[in-house]
Amino acid sequence: METESGGCGDQGATLHAVSSAVLAVTRHLSVHEVLQVIVRAAAQLLDARYAALGVPDDEGSFAEFVVEGISDEEWERIGPMPRQHGMLAAMLQGDAPKRLDDIRKEPEFEGWPVAHPVLKDFLGVPILDGEDVLGIVFLANKRSPGGFTANDEELLTLFAAHAAIAITNARLYEHNRELTVVAERNRMARELHDAVAQKLFSLRLTARTASTLAERDPARTVRELEQVERLAAEALNELRAVIFELRPADLADGLVPSLRKHVEVLDRAHEASVRIAADEAVVLPEEHEAVAFRITQEALYNALRHAGAQTVEVRLATSDGSAVLEVADDGSGFDTSDAAEPQNGLGLASMRDRAYSIGGGLTIDARPGKGTTVRLEVPL
Q: Are strands 48-56 and 132-142 parallel, antiparallel or unpaired?
């Protein structure tokens, strides 16, 4: 690629800039984050004052429209999300880039809302997945004189091809995450059915026994009724615990306060002692906190439901530049070297996948009869 005036420097610098931009995008997994990083990286890559990316919907508007160079207050004053008209509609209907010296002089130009910034030189490129237009990324008002060049157009087209892959991967990730949530809820429903149904069946038999003995053995009847009361309380605790676990995590107060609330509820709902020791200063990105909370939730569920633990402790601290979250119990444990490791029953594979999704690592330290420690490490 030869350098033009106002371009991005020599070929090596250009490739380095594209590589840096692509890496910035691919570090993120949620679709909205990917779109935001694409816009920011494109603006930095080509030294543009303004950048935007629109993902069209089927109703003549945009499912997503993210911008760079405009503050939240300015965006609020501009008004509703733009519809597919003017230059935006023209680009959605084709698959070719648009590079203009002055967008205001184009036949498709239809004006802007009053609070909209004035755009002059313009470069727009469709983000394509085969023949499908995933969106359009466009830049305006290049900071260096002369407007956008042919090299800029080639560079943004190259970046858009990588952006298409990132968007598709993010959509697949979110879809798979939704499927995982459904699968976990189905598993919890089965656990609920098995655990509560078993206790209710025992309760029914015990109540029938008490009824039969009521006249001829009053003392034993009292003991059977005490057993009925105990079984009813256990069934109620099972219901409360599973219903609590099915509720979506509310992390509005942050990871540590949310973990404390969760531990407090489980400590009340179960006979086991559930404790927490957490560093209040540990703060993670929102998506990382949600994953950490879900892994903790799963590990606690395993300790209390499968391992028969009497004591469970949640620990959160920092070590060597990482946040370290541990759930340790004194339950039955298992042999991690055994090929029959109960990964499906305990959701260990799901926990590892969650940890990997945020760039973290998950280790399981378990021995039969010696308890289990689940350890999540996430770089800060």
A: antiparallel
Cα 75 from Cα 116, distance rounded (Å): 8
Tally the C-alpha atoms within 13 A of residue 356's C-alpha that lie toward its C-beta: 8
Nearest to 136 by CA among 92, 84, 82: 92
Instruction: Look at the pTM and tell me if it is higher than 0.70.
Output: no
- Cβ atoms of 11 and 1 within 8 Å: the answer is yes
Paired sense of beta strands 62-68 and 98-100, if any: unpaired
DSSP structure class, residue 145 = T
The string of pLDDT tens digits covering residues 44-59 is 889 999 999 988 887 7
Distance CA 31, CA 208 (A): 57
Cα angle value 173/249/234 (rounded, 5°): 120
223 Rama sector, left if φ>0, alpha if ψ -120 to 50, beta otherwise: alpha
- Residue 351 sits at the vertex; the CA angle it makes with 250 and 328, to the nearest 5 degrees, is 85
Phi/psi region, residue 141 (left: phi>0; alpha: psi -120 to 50; beta: rest), is: left
> Which residues, given as ranges, of the chain have pLDDT below 70?
1-18, 20-21, 23-29, 81, 94, 177-178, 180-197, 199, 237-250, 252, 337-347
**Burial per residue of 292-311, b for 16 or more beta-carbon CB atoms within 10 angstroms, e otherwise:** bbbbbbbbbbbbbbbbebee
Inter-residue long-range contacts of 326-331, CB under 8 Å, 24+ positions, other chains counted: 326/373, 326/374, 326/375, 326/376, 327/296, 327/299, 327/300, 327/303, 327/373, 327/374, 328/371, 328/372, 328/373, 328/374, 329/303, 329/371, 329/372, 329/373, 330/371, 331/303, 331/306, 331/307, 331/371, 331/372
| Measured distance CA(334)–CA(343) in Å, rounded | 11
Q: Do the Cβ atoms of 241 and 274 come closer than 8 Å? A: no
Contacts of 334 (CB under 8 A, 6+ apart): 341, 342, 366, 367, 368, 372
Nearest by Cα to 17 from 46, 53, 38, 60: 46
Q: Give the C-alpha separation, 22 to 158, whole Å.
A: 10
Report pLDDT for 362. Answer: 93
Q: What is the DSSP letter of 84?
A: S
Q: Are 34 and 25 in contact (CB under 8 A)?
A: yes
